[in-house]
Amino acid sequence: MGEKNDKKEKKSKKEKLPRQQMPEQKADVRKHNFDEVPLGYTKQMAMQEASRCLQCKKPACVEGCPVEIDIPEFIRYIQAGDFTKAIRHIWQRNSLPAICGRVCPQEDQCEGLCILGKKDEPVAIGHLERFAADYERHYGTGELPPKAESTGKRVAVVGSGPSGLTVAGDLILKGHEVTVFEAFHKGGGVLIYGIPEFRLPKEIVAQELNFLERLGVKIQCNEVVGKTTTLDELFEEGYEAIYLGVGAGLPRFLNIPGENLVGIYSANEYLTRANLMKAYRFPEYDTPLVKGKDVAVFGAGNVAMDAARTAMRMGADNVRIIYRRSREEMPAREAEIHHAEEEGIQFYLLTAPTRFMGNDQGRVSGMECLQMELGEPDDSGRRRPLPVKGSEFQLDCDLAVIAVGAGANPLLTQSTPELQLNKWGYVIADEKTGKTTKKGVWAGGDIVTGAATVILAAGAGRQCSNSIHDYLTIGW
Amino acid sequence: MFEIVKRKEMAQGTVVLNEIKAPKIAAKAKPGQFVILKANETGERIPLTMAYTDPEKGIIAVIYQVVGKSTALFSTLQEGQGFQDVIGPLGKATEIEKLGTVVCVGGGTGVAVMHPITKAMKEAGNHVIAIIGARTRDLLILEEEMKAASHDLRVCTDDGSYGHHGFVTDVLKQTLEKEDVKLVVGIGPVPMMKFVTKMTKEYNVKTLVSLNSIMVDGTGMCGCCRVSVGGETRFACVDGPEFDGHLVDFEELSKRLQAYTDMEKESYEQFKCACQS
Prior knowledge:
The complex is a heterodimer of chains A (476) and B (277).
Chain A: H1 2-16, H2 27-30, H3 43-50, H4 60-63, H5 71-79, H6 83-91, H7 97-103, H8 110-113, H9 125-139, E1 154-158, H10 162-173, E2 177-181, H11 190-193, H12 202-215, E3 218-220, H13 231-236, E4 241-244, E5 250-251, E6 264-266, H14 267-276, E7 294-298, H15 302-313, E8 318-322, H16 334-342, E9 346-348, E10 351-358, E11 364-377, E12 383-387, E13 393-396, E14 399-402, E15 406-407, H17 411-414, E16 441-443, H18 446-449, H19 454-473
Parallel strand pairs in A: 1-2, 1-4, 2-3, 4-16, 6-14, 7-8, 7-14, 8-9
Antiparallel strand pairs in A: 5-15, 10-11, 11-12, 11-13
Chain B: E1 2-10, E2 15-21, H1 23-28, E3 34-38, E4 46-49, E5 52-54, E6 59-65, H2 69-76, E7 82-83, E8 85-90, E9 101-107, H3 110-123, E10 127-134, H4 143-149, E11 152-157, E12 164-165, H5 168-178, E13 181-187, H6 190-202, E14 207-210, E15 226-229, E16 232-235, E17 242-244, H7 250-257, H8 261-276
Parallel strand pairs in B: 9-10, 9-13, 10-11, 11-12, 13-14
Antiparallel strand pairs in B: 1-2, 1-7, 2-6, 3-4, 3-8, 5-6, 14-17, 15-16
């Protein structure tokens, strides 16, 4: 009898505490604006969600975090309503919480390992991280975390994306002098040129950069390392260690006929125009961008979803994701696919483009595709898509965005022959320390691993910053 | 800010020269390389090949024709004011070697780009014949400078108001007939480069052209400036801006340059209205 009652009580407790859903803009409204889609937790929601955490003694979630944030501890502070302590606790491991809380694939990392997730939904760790960072931004005291005494050592960080900023944040707190070099006119790397406003407001990136600047990090824009200056010149200027976090900035194309027609963009170009150059606000901003009615986006990763949803917001009638494999193989986060579907993005799966057609002004007007079927697994372990004979069909298309990944940009590596590269042109770096084959130079993020995620880049940055600190205090 | 230390109008105010304080770029820049300029917060990133540099004074110079909103905005910047952003030097430098007789053909503001290349070709020991042209005499730029940079300067105007009456290709043809030309460098509007390369192909003379593709980052990241060269896609920003003119698909280039014509017009009209009111 008593046992039965117990079970009932447990069940009702669970019913009282479902995972707090984050409110979002409605799909039919948001597909016409560039404002952020998820709106964030209220204090009450955050505290309630935090109370779902079991405070495991051996927390699996932490093992899933590339920068090993002490997750249960910061959640405990949120549950107690001490948001200031919560964010300070996160900062010990992560300099970019407002960003990671938004764009990390938590379902594959911390939340994917959450014990609650076995029977129920996991604790919304990402939402809580975001909440703590947002709360600090809006209501925080602005008090900075403590910094170690100055070592007088200078470090140059090349690239101001997530891995570079993580290194900068880590090393400035350890007392080193840090300058970040950025080729674009604005800092933030992929966070500013790649990820759209509706997924990561640029104001937040600016605030995270400002936080680092207040800690003493110098951010030097318009400096193309490899062109304006070389690594050896940086050493001559007195930098004792250099971290390369330049990303994988080389666009891949489809290599099919008609690809150079006007209106066909690499995802890098399309998103840079839209995000960094704010082309969606043309003519208030001077950079133009083709507005398509029938849009095709090739690829099915997060970048493809970003491009498709941007095109929708620019006023397209039809936005089609064209992907040669099936839904199961789509690399994008489930949440991004879901958001795209809600906004009316169409998915043409098992479909591969064969050529583009143009009009007499050299603008893209259509394309031809082939149906595919899945064969045996290929090198990547995914079933290889094979064309179905005679299945060609045509689609109207006046804007196409190619989002099939990025390669290694050779600009910097070509100017530095001592850096050994692998056969794809990525920098060879020690797996544990991030040391490259050139003394005093570390590398991490996409330029080592190939295109991956923000948090993996930040995780690589963390490993390197530990090694750089050892080098500056002990030796190579 | 990158300060404009000298501003000069040329060709009846349709072309503007800016000397800009940019010591790091000036120290590194070589003939044929370009910079990307952005006037202000809302501005567009515009690539311009440098006309000359003075590393000692830390100065780079660009010369541009006012053709749309962005260049019109540039032209409003006075001495003491400046560009919010200047990035460079970008692209590959011109390969300068001693070859013998080299002909440098410049049209319009292409003459500005041609100037440092001409000078370097002469300094390398080549016999340099320069041919420059413009629609009419008033639009001709850098005549004196080109005279000094070459051994022999030939000038053409489309309307015959000065020098040879006709196109630069007429004078080029005469030159190719008479001289043992080892290399032609042709820089100017796309139609001019197209006709120059068409002619030199007949004479089987190697020809370099410098392409002014639309760009965004200028570091090989976006592929906006892609151009077909010998059937392969190349990026003007990192593989160029100079290419073997006999292999460039000028039809495609010219269509890609017109990608935003309508939007550019809209933007320019709005800018002119705002300036008037």
